[in-house]
């Protein structure tokens, strides 16, 4: 129990370090300087993502009322009590994640209405982008049926495609992604403050590159669909083939003039959270280290690697030690259960180490949401599988059905925090030797 409490406190420190509002406030002077230098007639704000409410509030409070109008678009349940009623020019929309629905369409429609209305070379548009924006802002390309796009994305999510592959397809089926939002805004000046939820902080992938040049092509999107055996429905296939053949305009690349007036700044990433956990561990006088390589790829393979590393450290001495890592795994969903990548990673990790003792692991999303559940992730140790069996809960059976949430709900171990107001991928904390 002591190890679990310690890991939970390290997780809390990671979330605090990754507070988007604090980082937005840091960049407020940059925005004010740009505003003063260019003498903009109007300033408009677009905040999209799970961290949108806190980012928007921080910007409004830090820029002295320069924002005339704006939209705050966030995931349902992520408003976190933020109230914009004192800002009459700001509208709030709650939309769906991870699969877009009619609310996502509405959010995209309101965005385009606002931005087309303010499109001018004497307008500054401040975009505040964070994880979840790809789903929350859904505007299919004109030729694509929303239901068909939605179906393709759902198949990709369940196939084990990584975020780069998923967003490659998204960009070429959208009217706003892959730099098309910046295209729609031109000649307005655009400053985007970005919270990264992707490995390597690739601005063309974060939020599907709403305001960034797109290095991918329709051919790349078709290759992704082929890789996972997904047969695109009629309107999706026609869109991709038309772009591939040059019959319709492709997404803007780095040579496009629209990016001359667009600035993309990554203000926060997964490393920020990991360093927050490390700093807290050091404050507790714990021996701790950050594992440099990011956790990525298939959850089954990653759990084996992480378990092997932990077992090796158990034998090496210099204990206890806390191993800190971050990233984002993928899950090939074959069952009909309820779960998330962090809960499945934790469960698989526990199964790998059930014959040992003295290892505890926490794996959780920094957004406080793991899959379509109310949990952020789970905490396990080397007794998790044995204790579950004593309660009649079989780990293997739940894994086969991708039902990790039910496993932990029945046996214990869920980490429930509620939405945290940030989103910088996942964090794993492993206490070895206690």
Structure, explained:
This protein is an alpha/beta fold and 434 residues long. The chain folds into 2 domains: 20-268, Rossmann fold; 271-432, MOFRL domain (glycerate kinase, domain 1, 3-Layer(aba) Sandwich), CATH 3.40.1480. It is built from 16 helices and 13 strands. The protein has helices at residues 2-17, 20-38, 52-62, 102-118, 133-136, 146-159, 163-171, 180-185, 218-227, 234-244, 270-283, 299-316, 341-352, 384-390, 395-400, 404-411, and strands spanning 42-48, 69-75, 90-95, 123-129, 189-195, 262-268, 288-290, 295-298, 321-330, 359-365, 377-381, 414-415, 426-432. The strands form 2 sheets. Strands 7, 8, 9, 10, 11, 12 and 13 form a 7-stranded mixed sheet that branches. α12 links the parallel β8 and β9 (321-330). α1 (2-17) crosses α11, α7 (163-171) packs across α9 and α12 (299-316) packs across α13. The radius of gyration is 22 Å and the shape is globular. The termini are close together. The relative contact order is 0.14. The mean pLDDT is 94.
């Amino acid at each position: 129990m002591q190890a679990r409490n310690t890991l939970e406190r390290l997780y809390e420190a990671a979330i605090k370090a990754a507070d988007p509002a604090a980082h937005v406030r840091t960049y407020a002077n940059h925005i004010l300087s740009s505003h003063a230098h260019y003498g903009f007639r109007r300033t408009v704000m677009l905040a999209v993502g799970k961290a949108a409410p806190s980012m928007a509030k921080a910007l409004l409070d830090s820029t002295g009322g320069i924002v005339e109008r704006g939209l705050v678009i966030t995931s349902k349940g992520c408003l976190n009590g933020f109230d914009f009623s004192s800002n009459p020019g700001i509208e709030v929309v709650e939309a769906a994640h991870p699969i877009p629905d009619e609310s996502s369409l509405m959010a995209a429609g309101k965005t385009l209405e606002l931005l087309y209305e303010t499109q001018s070379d004497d307008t500054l548009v401040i975009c505040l982008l964070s994880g979840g924006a790809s789903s929350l802002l859904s505007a299919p390309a004109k030729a694509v049926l929303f239901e068909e796009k939605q179906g393709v994305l759902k198949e990709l999510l369940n196939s084990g495609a990584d975020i780069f592959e998923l967003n490659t397809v998204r960009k070429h089926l959208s009217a706003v992604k892959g730099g098309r939002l910046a295209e729609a805004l031109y000649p307005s000046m655009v400053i985007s403050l970005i919270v990264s939820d992707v490995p390597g902080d690739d601005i063309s992938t974060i939020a599907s590159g709403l305001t960034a040049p797109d290095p991918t092509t329709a051919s790349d999107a078709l290759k992704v669909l082929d890789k996972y055996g997904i047969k695109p429905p009629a309107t999706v296939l026609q869109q991709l083939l038309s772009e591939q053949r040059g019959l319709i305009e492709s997404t803007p690349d780095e040579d496009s003039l629209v990016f001359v007036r667009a600035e993309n700044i990554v203000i926060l990433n997964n490393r920020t959270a990991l360093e927050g956990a490390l700093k807290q561990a050091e404050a507790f006088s714990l021996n701790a280290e950050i594992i440099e390589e990011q956790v990525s790829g298939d959850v089954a393979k990653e759990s084996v690697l992480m378990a092997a590393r932990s077992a090796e450290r158990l034998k090496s001495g210099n204990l206890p030690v806390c191993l800190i890592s971050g990233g984002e795994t993928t899950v090939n969903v074959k069952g009909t259960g309820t779960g998330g990548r962090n809960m499945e990673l934790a469960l698989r990790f526990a199964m790998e180490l059930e014959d040992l003792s003295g290892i505890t692991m926490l794996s959780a999303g920094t957004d406080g949401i793991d899959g379509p559940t109310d949990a952020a992730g789970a905490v396990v140790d080397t007794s998790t599988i044995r204790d579950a069996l004593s309660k009649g809960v079989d780990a293997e059976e739940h894994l086969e059905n991708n039902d990790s949430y039910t496993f932990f709900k029945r046996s214990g171990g869920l980490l429930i925090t509620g939405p945290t107001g940030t989103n910088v991928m996942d964090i794993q904390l492993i206490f070895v030797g206690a």
